[in-house]
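User: We ran a pulldown and think these components assemble together. Before we commit to crystallization trials, I'd like a predicted model of the whole complex to look at. Sequences follow.
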Amino acid sequence: MKEITSQQQRVLDCIQIYLKKTGFPPTRADICRELGFKSPNSAETHLRALEKKGFISIESGASRGISVNNQNNSFGGDEYPVIGLVAAGSPTLAEENIERTINCPKSFFESGFDYFLKVRGLSMKDAGIMEDDLIAVKKTTDVKNGDIVIARLDDEVTVKFFNRKSSNIVELEPANEDFENIVINLESEQLHIEGKSVGLLRRN
Amino acid sequence: MKEITSQQQRVLDCIQIYLKKTGFPPTRADICRELGFKSPNSAETHLRALEKKGFISIESGASRGISVNNQNNSFGGDEYPVIGLVAAGSPTLAEENIERTINCPKSFFESGFDYFLKVRGLSMKDAGIMEDDLIAVKKTTDVKNGDIVIARLDDEVTVKFFNRKSSNIVELEPANEDFENIVINLESEQLHIEGKSVGLLRRN
DNA sequence: AAAAATACTGAATGTATGTACAGTATAATA
DNA sequence: TATTATACTGTACATACATTCAGTATTTTT
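Assistant: Here's a predicted model for the assembly, 408 residues in total across the polymer chains.
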């Protein structure tokens, strides 16, 4: 890929901004309007130069037939951290807890989400959540009974069903008969809701 | 957002696949070519319906002026079909079996995969596979004992553990004590392995 | 010093494309 | 039962657009 000139960079930026704004590429006239050129041929020659240098491809004859040659498609998709073992006392999203990141579209899980949590143990197995599964977590404290929540109790992070019994009593319920409910009295114990599960990802 | 019809869904999918492939939206004629319509007005009316229902926006007068209204501009990934109910006797990937598509990166599941299969029933619940989960399926006949396979028996598609007992006997084992093993004698019965599970996606 | 690339204006042209109009037919809705 | 939405074919046409040709001027490369 050869060197790009500053004017060609302007044209390339213009194309990408236009694409993001409208969802389709600009015409020669559009580029002229955006960049103040007075002849469509100004855009044309820049496009041909960009094509020659490999930055874009042009479908001959097709209107708006410009596509940007972005091999590293960091557009749209985002990098989401995978949280593994959470060190006691450290904030969940602290860097040392991030095992790696996964690139996936923003709204891959319907309500949007913030990170993946790697599941340890089988306390939620009857809800189809197995060891090493990745739970898509949306950071929120707005949880309803029956939601699968990511909760923090004494620096211990746990995944359970949420069940508010009364204004002061919350039960965290596993989905595995070998485990017992955790009953929390909010007056005497700290319960911090990190978020709730909005999806699950498993890779064999 | 109102209900979408199956034909309108086909058109919407066509637009997104075209976008992914070329980088710009299709013309009416392109859509006709892809879907077998013979009049550009067929595409036009579908586009207007999709616009009315809010799935797309159309820039009046602009060629290829279609933009898809899903908030996530998930460029870079691929569109993977979601296979729901498989009609008896029809090939799994036949168009009428495609419920919709999901955009996700190619290498989202490590060994690559070909489509998502929507799970019916709870026969694999102890393996953490619940109803309506989406199994990432890689088309292959190269399966080992213990693999979770997608198998076809008498036009019925099923997901089970694979276990070859001998050269002629294969057992398909559920992960749910309420279900029983399926024993197949390859000499007298047809067993077609569609592929194997390489991952799982669940959306709450 | 000549050639090639860059950076434009301006006009012209063929065609790619959106879009309206005229039909036909079936299913869903009021 | 009338009406609207869906699902098409087919023709036609104005215009949106790509693209070529003709210039001018500056900078970079050979």
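Confidence is low (pLDDT under 50) at residues 72-76 of chain B. That may be worth checking against your pulldown data before setting up trials.

User: Thanks, that helps.
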